[in-house]
């Protein structure tokens, strides 16, 4: 994936400051959503297990999921 993204932008230099969500948007044409696990809302979702249920649902729907 890294090689394809660098080829798209004609340089590897772009990868140093890049963001995986931006790369996925560029490579797939889809939208991206980021989750900040440090917010109180996401912490509650994590602790209740809802985050994992949501991620499993998204993966089952064919979404790309990544972590940073």
Radius of gyration: 15 Å
User: Structural class per helix/strand content?
Assistant: mainly alpha
Helix percent band: 40-55%
Secondary-structure element sequence?
Answer: HHHH
Q: What's the overall geometry?
A: elongated
End-to-end C-alpha gap: 15 Å
> Would you tell me the overall average pLDDT?
85
Task: Report on the architecture of this protein.
This protein is mostly helical and 68 residues long. The protein has 2 domains: 1-30, no CATH class; 35-68, no CATH class. The chain has 4 helices and no strands. The chain has helices at residues 2-9, 20-28, 40-48, 50-60. The longest helix is centred in the C-terminal third of the chain and has 11 residues, at 50-60. It starts with a helix and ends in an 8-residue tail after the last helix. The relative contact order is 0.12.
SSE topology sketch:
Blueprint: H1 2-9, H2 20-28, H3 40-48, H4 50-60
Salient structural properties:
single chain, 68 residues, mainly alpha, 4 helices
Entry summary:
With 68 residues, the chain is mostly helical. It has helices at 2-9, 20-28, 40-48, 50-60. The two termini are 15 Å apart.
């Amino acid at each position: 994936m890294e090689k394809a993204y660098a080829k798209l932008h004609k340089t590897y230099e772009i990868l140093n400051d890049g963001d995986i969500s931006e790369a996925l948007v560029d490579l797939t044409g889809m939208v991206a959503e980021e989750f900040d696990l440090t917010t109180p809302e996401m912490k509650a979702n994590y602790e209740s297990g809802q985050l994992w249920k949501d991620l499993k649902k998204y993966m089952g729907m064919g979404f790309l999921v990544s972590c940073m």
